Amino acid sequence: MNTATNLAVNFEFGKFGIGVEDIKTETENLIRLGSESKESKGLFTVKTASRWIEQAKTRPIPKMLFGEFWFEGELCILFADTNLGKSILAVQIGNCVTKGEPIRGFKLETSKQSILYFDFELSDKQFENRYSKQFEQHYNFDNNFIRVEINPDAQIPETQTFEDYLNYSLERSIIDTGAKVLIIDNLTYLKSETEKAKDALPLMKHLKALKTKYGLSILALAHTPKRDLSKPITRNDLQGSKMLINFCDSSFSIGESSTDKNTRYLKQIKARNTEIIYDTENVCVCLIEKPSNFLRFDFLNFGTEREHLKQISESEKSELENSIKDLMQTEPGITAYAIAKRLCKDESKFNSFKVKVSRIVNKNSNSSNT
């Protein structure tokens, strides 16, 4: 029996501005609140699968912000080594969202909207240089593009740490602007020790809480430690990878191409709203260029990741392995770091070379112990 529709109206509800529909709505609200109360089990919300689907039906279908790499409502991490163009691509994505115009080669399904770009990398003059022709003929950004910098003169309350005050200021900026899309460049400034799980966990919880509270889409930029450029990119290349990857909704990376110094490739690492489309067999190849007054990624084509990895000949590999083996025999106890220092011919490539040496040292050590 529907209580609201079968009420015997003996009381003059109309006299007090109360109609049957008002009573019906209030009754349904009370029933709903009662059901929700039963579904709440301390830390958990417990519902049947059908109830979850009914609830999900009321939410909008996530739309693409940057092709299959980043959807609405996602906390997405873009990671790469230093100077590979993370900020260049992030500004380009933000610019396209604010103008409602997709980057060539990548879908944009939302209409133009405001974004907050938290720039903890560049000064205003460095930013101007990227988006002008030698500080003249400046690029015309839409007013929806709101760039945020740290104010060096800001007074941090004595009762708060820098990180606490930064998080407070971040939330205040979201409230005051009403922006639903955030780009954070980069994660290091929100938490100083993201490579440690115990520090990465609170950071990701904070970002997820903001995302849920305000219905945000967040693109967070992060660094990779120096990596072996002959190996494919994996989730293990992200600094603090285990905790950061576990808590984000999606992630993609920029890879350096060995074919040309200005060529990059984009690879999906994690996805929830789509299948992994851009994997090692199908990366997006782009060229970093500045044809006018806007530094950007220009889509070229699709390719395999191995086409862009540094190739090591068998003779070079054998020569390196023999050199390492000789040093380990003549100087027992020598560290991988010391061997790398001794053998590295190009100091600018020392970090990636060190990774390669460590792998060979470990292999030799393991084989000698068996």
Question: Secondary-structure blueprint of this entry?
Answer:
Layout: H1 20-39, E1 40-41, E2 44-45, H2 49-57, E3 64-66, E4 70-71, E5 75-80, H3 86-99, E6 115-119, H4 124-130, E7 145-148, H5 162-177, E8 181-185, H6 197-214, E9 217-223, H7 241-247, E10 250-256, E11 263-270, E12 283-289, E13 296-303, H8 314-330, H9 336-343, H10 350-369
Parallel strand pairs: 5-9, 5-10, 6-7, 6-8, 8-9
Antiparallel strand pairs: 1-2, 3-4, 10-11, 11-12, 12-13
Percent of sequence in beta strands = 15-25%
Q: Which fold name corresponds to the CATH topology of the largest domain?
A: Rossmann fold
Overall shape: it is globular
The chain-level structural class is alpha/beta
Q: What is the average per-residue confidence, as pLDDT, rounded to a whole number? A: 86
- Total number of strands: 13
Q: Write the element-wise H/E pattern from the N-terminal end onward.
A: HEEHEEEHEHEHEHEHEEEEHHH
CATH architecture tag of the largest domain: 3-Layer(aba) Sandwich
Lateral strand order in the biggest sheet: 7-6-8-9-5-10-11-12-13
Roughly how many Å is the radius of gyration?
A: 27 Å
Specify the biggest β-sheet. Answer: 9 strands, mixed
Low-confidence stretches: none
